[in-house]
Amino acid sequence: MPKLADCTIAGARPETRRMADLPKPVHDALLAAIGRPIAEAGAPFNPSDVVVPHSPPRVRFLRAYRVRDLWLVWIEQGGIGHDFRLLGFRDAAKGVSVAVPIPREAGRNLCNASRAMAKV
To answer: Which residue from 37, 43, 94, 112 has the least number of CB within 10 angstroms?
Structure first.
């Protein structure tokens, strides 16, 4: 698990440190957005681009923040383009969450990008 800096986001509830603790609509929207298995924070993770049978997932949940109706989710993606990404999901009608577009370059500093998105 990478060492993550503390991040204070104005108006955010306490951070969620386990994917299992996300509300079901956010959890389901995250899985749909990634389209493949996601390792829980601290669970085995494959940071490389070499995938063999029974490899751990190449995506890992890091943490999430809730600001009003917006969930900001931090993930780590393995592979040749190993990267950290910020994904956003808003509460929607009928108990679902919908993806919010976030610029790809926003992942360079997850805390700063999360603070910027929290103002939107």
So the answer is: 94
Structure tokens at 48: 């490389």
**Local structure of 30: helix, strand or coil:** helix
Tokens of 76: 């780590």
pLDDT value for 59 = 95
The helix/strand/coil state of 94 is helix
Sequence length of the chain is 120
List the strands of the sheet with 59-67, edge to edge: 59-67, 70-77, 83-91, 97-100
The pLDDT, as a whole number, for residue 106 is 62
Most distant pair of Cα atoms in the chain: their distance: 43
Token pair, residue 44, equals 């085995």
Mean pLDDT by 10 residues, the chain (120 residues): 86 94 95 94 90 89 96 93 92 87 75 89
For residues 84 and 75, the answer to whether their CB atoms sit within 8 Å is yes
